[in-house]
Amino acid sequence: MKNILKYSFIFLFMTSGYMVNAQIPISEKQYLIEFHKTTVGEQWQKTWNLNEDPSSWYGVEINDGHVVGLKLYRNNLSGKIPNGIAALTNLKTLNLSFNTLSGKLPKDLFELGALKSLRLEMNKLSGALPQDYSKMKSLEELSMFNNLFQGAIPSGIGELENLKALNLSSNYLEGSLPKSIEKLANLERLELFGNKLAGSIEVDLGKLVNLKELILSYNQFEGDLPSSMATLSNLEFVQLQGNDFRSLNSLLRMQSRNLAVFDSDDEFLNMKFGNNEAGKSRLVDNKYEDVKRN
Fold first, then answer.
1. Which pLDDT value is given to residue 275?
2. Which domain holds residue 275?
3. From CA 116, how far away is CA 161, in angstroms rounded?
């Protein structure tokens, strides 16, 4: 009888240990509960039952006992993203786009070293962009278009060495394009449509050898476009219209054979490189409905 009780105790201990290990850390669960509260979770389209295990919560992806994904795209989130998100140390994907989140970004959001994709587009987020990106060595996608961000694009964004897509279109960003952007050697998409960016472009665009899409339209850029842009052989989509560029003549020697869409204020170049309906459609797709100004 004693042996049976002994082995039963061992079995229960091992089983309970397994159940504990199967749960996410308390710090991660506590943050998710706080996130649910501050983003008015009871009004989400697909809300969480906080009495159930986090693995059952909509949009929460768990792997090896940690939250690796938080995907709540178009789910009627409002309120603010709470501080403390750094508790999700293994988070790889954060997609909160197409909601009505407001306020400033959490101070510790850009401490998530495992994050690969950060999508916050089509919200009402405001304030200045953070200065330090040195911990985000894994980030490949940063999309925050159609918000209310102000101030300059920080030079620290050049620290995102693995970044492939940067979309800050339709905000209120101003100042010049930081020269540090030329350090983003893996960048394939640079989209800055519809801001208040101004001045001459001092960035050596020729260093962005993998660039496929360059959208600088409807800002206040001036001067000559960097001649090095003509060496970008992978360009497929270019929009430069709505600026005050003095000359685009350097693009006459454009080397890209993949160019499908080219829009500028220079009609000769538009005809030379082909100005078709795809360009107009893509421009609309990037702008979306300008809800942030309502």
1. 53
2. 27-293
3. 12
Work out how many domains the chain is built from and give that number: 1
Distance CA 208, CA 204 (A): 8
pLDDT digits 0-9 by tens, 168-186: 999 999 999 999 999 999 9
Q: What are the structure tokens assigned to 48, written together? A: 């969480």
Q: What pLDDT sits at residue 6?
A: 45
Residue 72: CATH number of its domain = 3.80.10.10
Report d(CA 176, CA 288) in Å as an integer. 25
Place of tokens 């959001």: 109
Q: Within a domain: residue 130?
A: yes
Three-class HEC string of the chain: CHHHHHHHHHHHHHHHHHHHHHCCCHHHHHHHHHHHHHCCHHHCCCCCCCCCCHHHCCCEEEECCEEEEEECCCCCCCCCCCCCHHHCCCCCEEECCCCCCEECCCCCHHHCCCCCEEECCCCEEEEECCCCCCCCCCCCEEECCCCEEEECCCHHHHHCCCCCEEECCCCEEEECCCHHHHHCCCCCEEECCCCEEEEECCCCHHHCCCCCEEECCCCEEEEECCHHHHHCCCCCEEECCCCEEEECHHHHHCCCCCCCEEECCCHHHHHHHCCCHHHHHHHHHHHCCCHHHC
**To which residue do tokens 């994904």 refer?**
69
